[in-house]
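Sequence, please.
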């Protein structure tokens, strides 16, 4: 069984202990460290290269958004899940832009959190319903930028639409009848051409450009 390594970043010791107690009861999840500040979290992430980081937004020193940005810069393969008490626009949008793959509130059920961690390991996003609604509202109107969808090839557009439907690389490969390696290449090209950080931003972009239905 492949274990998912997780780093906890939260300034409340009781919260960290509660998360550790539950997550360590999962056979496929391993806690590899805890940090009580953004700076400490970035340092530990660089040292231990966790698969997933659970990130609080309000931290002493640098906040969760900046810590997310720094971790993604030094550990690009690490997936960051925001786990916070706040669904405010001034926290949600910057966190996603900084590279967080998922955004959950601390009222999440323990099993849902475990599923989100496993999903993050598969590079799949999970958003709290309130957060998802905010993102859909924010990105419901197409925008005009230099990062035009016209830069994409027809096949890259096909892949982008599949990403917006939440499909994994393997599922996209099966749907489009191409190799998984080819899908990875297309995904990399899409992110590069559109100046996007990850699949979550790519899915949001596709929705905003109305490349897929909003329902």
């Amino acid at each position: 069984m492949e274990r998912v390594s997780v780093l906890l970043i939260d300034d409340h010791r009781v919260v960290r202990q509660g998360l550790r107690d539950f997550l360590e009861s999962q056979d496929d999840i391993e806690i590899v460290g805890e940090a009580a500040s953004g700076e400490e979290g970035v340092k530990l992430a660089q040292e231990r290269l966790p698969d997933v980081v659970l990130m609080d937004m309000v931290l002493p020193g640098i906040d969760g958004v900046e810590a997310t940005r720094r971790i993604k810069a030094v550990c690009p393969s690490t997936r960051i899940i925001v786990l916070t008490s706040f669904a405010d626009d001034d926290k949600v949008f910057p966190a996603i832009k900084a590279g967080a793959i998922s955004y959950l509130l601390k009222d999440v059920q323990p099993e849902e959190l475990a599923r989100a961690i496993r999903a993050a390991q598969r590079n799949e996003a999970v958003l709290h319903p309130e957060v998802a609604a905010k993102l859909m509202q924010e990105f419901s109107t197409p925008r005009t930028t230099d990062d035009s969808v016209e830069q994409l090839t027809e096949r890259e557009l096909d892949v982008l639409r599949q990403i917006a439907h939440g499909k994994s690389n393997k599922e996209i490969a099966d749907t489009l009848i191409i190799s998984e390696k080819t899908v990875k290449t297309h995904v990399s090209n899409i992110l590069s051409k559109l100046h996007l950080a990850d699949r979550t931003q790519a899915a949001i972009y596709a929705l905003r450009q109305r490349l897929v239905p909003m329902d």
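The mean pLDDT is 87.
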